[in-house]
Amino acid sequence: MQQEEDQVTAPAPRPLRADARRNRDRLIEVAARAFAQDGPDVTLDAIAKEAGVGIGTLYRHFATREELVEAAYRSELATLCDSASELLEAGPPDAALRAWMDGFVRYMTTKRGMSDALRALIATGGDPFSRSRTMLTGAITELFRAGTAAGLLRADIEPEDVLFSLSGLSLAATTPEHHARMARLLDLLMDGLRYQAPSGSRAPDADTPAV
């Protein structure tokens, strides 16, 4: 009984003030771009300077370089996955899926640019990819189920098969010259996903003549 009374519950961390939250978000945004463009050699001083804060502010939010790398990667992943619901609210499910594909390619390009920094993180025992597949599968499943329910996408395709296809295509988008070709390949993939889908209730596009 005395042992239970002696135990002290750690207080919950206080929520960040609005200005501190803005600083943290800005640091993550700048870090993701810097790691993608300059690799693991970019300095924390440079990241802090571009974010408009002092190095002390950076260390208050991220005690180590590895914490910042992981936060930057997870932010990119969360932005992509959260966009699925937003895209579904903005338009028909097949258009939402096609727009999400573009976001996936951008995410993979950023991830590839961060690969050296991520490998350095993994070498220290970190696991930035622990929830990646689950989150990505959940996002594309949400999009695909909405498309099949609306009769706009075929129902005999596993969402994970689409994710594997996108991953393979993204490996080819290594230079700016490949981006136009990538758009054509994504359109071709969407045509395959629509092929023999039940007729949905989607209205014709405004510039499509009525038959």
TrEMBL record:
<dbReference type="GO" id="GO:0003700">
    <property type="term" value="F:DNA-binding transcription factor activity"/>
</dbReference>
<keyword id="KW-0238">DNA-binding</keyword>
<feature type="DNA-binding region" description="H-T-H motif">
    <location>
        <begin position="43"/>
        <end position="62"/>
    </location>
</feature>
<protein>
    <submittedName>
        <fullName>Putative tetR family transcriptional regulator</fullName>
    </submittedName>
</protein>
<keyword id="KW-0804">Transcription</keyword>
<dbReference type="InterPro" id="IPR050109">
    <property type="entry name" value="HTH-type_TetR-like_transc_reg"/>
</dbReference>
<feature type="region of interest" description="Disordered">
    <location>
        <begin position="1"/>
        <end position="21"/>
    </location>
</feature>
<keyword id="KW-0805">Transcription regulation</keyword>
<dbReference type="GO" id="GO:0000976">
    <property type="term" value="F:transcription cis-regulatory region binding"/>
</dbReference>
<dbReference type="InterPro" id="IPR049445">
    <property type="entry name" value="TetR_SbtR-like_C"/>
</dbReference>
<dbReference type="Pfam" id="PF00440">
    <property type="entry name" value="TetR_N"/>
</dbReference>
<dbReference type="InterPro" id="IPR009057">
    <property type="entry name" value="Homeodomain-like_sf"/>
</dbReference>
<dbReference type="InterPro" id="IPR036271">
    <property type="entry name" value="Tet_transcr_reg_TetR-rel_C_sf"/>
</dbReference>
<dbReference type="InterPro" id="IPR001647">
    <property type="entry name" value="HTH_TetR"/>
</dbReference>
<dbReference type="Pfam" id="PF21597">
    <property type="entry name" value="TetR_C_43"/>
</dbReference>
<feature type="domain" description="HTH tetR-type">
    <location>
        <begin position="21"/>
        <end position="80"/>
    </location>
</feature>
